[in-house]
Write a structure and sequence with these properties.
The chain is α/β, with parallel strands linked by helices and 239 residues long. It has a single domain (3-233), classed as TIM Barrel, CATH 3.20.20. The protein is built from ten helices and nine strands. The strands form two sheets. Strands 2, 3, 4, 5, 6, 7 and 8 form a seven-stranded parallel beta sheet that branches. It has a two-stranded parallel sheet with strand order 1-9. The protein starts with a helix and ends with a helix.
Length: 239
């Protein structure tokens, strides 16, 4: 057992405790380890500890890692950061999940590239629950219309919603973001014209995932609490 494995066990225990505290069944929250800026050896340690899917922000970095681990058939990749449309072709070749869908132009590009690859992709609609201008994501008030507009894109399997809560020590401000996600989710569940399903909520990171679980998170994206502080690219990827 190395440090990554120990950290994983500690985070998984915290997830289970938070789930029970929230009155939820053990195992109802999925852990998505975020391996961005960390090298292959840490991913391998997490894999050996039982993890089978990893989250990456940068497409080029994720593609390099996917190629490096191409001989590991059950290792999967989720792209969780903002995506430019010209990178859609890359994501379509290797990713199993995309957690930051926030424009129809991007949806069309992904759908077209996936069709060419004869693949499909699980996607989460990113919602700007904090209404911060510097953040990507669909506005809360536009989320339902956006979900309806995704219906034509048959290669995108809409699984739910994703958000980044406000970065703050004010727990009520953070909780407000998660509460708004529950409200959006409920509106979508009552809309029979929205694409896909909306049972999934991808929200909560190292600093707030326990609070996110209290508000219904089904996937928590945890990086630093597992892998440690982020590195500079030149420190983990030669060249």
């Amino acid at each position: 057992m190395g440090q990554v494995a120990d950290n994983l066990a500690a985070v998984q225990q915290r997830i289970e405790v938070a789930s029970v505290r929230a009155g939820r069944a053990p195992g109802s929250v999925r852990l998505l380890p975020v391996s961005k800026t960390h090298g292959p050896e840490k991913i391998r340690e997490a894999y050996d500890a039982g993890m089978r899917i990893f989250g990456e922000n940068r497409v080029q970095e994720a593609a390099q890692k996917a190629e490096l681990f191409a001989d590991v058939p059950d290792l999967r990749w989720a792209v969780i950061g903002h995506l430019q449309t010209n990178k859609a072709k890359d994501v379509a070749t290797f990713a199993e999940e995309f957690h930051a869908l926030d424009s129809l132009r991007l949806a069309e590009a992904l759908d077209r590239r996936l069709h060419q690859q004869a693949r499909s992709l699980d996607v989460f609609v990113q919602v700007n629950s904090s209404d911060e201008p510097q953040k990507f994501g669909v506005a809360v008030e536009n989320a339902v219309d956006f979900a309806v507009a995704l219906r034509p894109y048959q290669n995108l399997r809409v699984r739910g919603l994703m958000t980044l809560a406000i970065f703050s020590d004010d727990a009520e401000a953070v909780a407000g973001c998660f509460r708004r996600m529950l409200e959006v989710q409920e509106r979508l569940r009552q809309t029979d014209t929205a694409a896909g399903s909306y049972d999934e909520l991808s929200m909560g990171m190292s600093g707030d995932f326990e609070l996110a679980i209290a508000y219904g998170a089904t996937t928590v994206r945890v990086g630093e609490a597992i892998f440690g502080s982020r590195l500079r690219p030149q420190d983990y990827w030669p060249g």
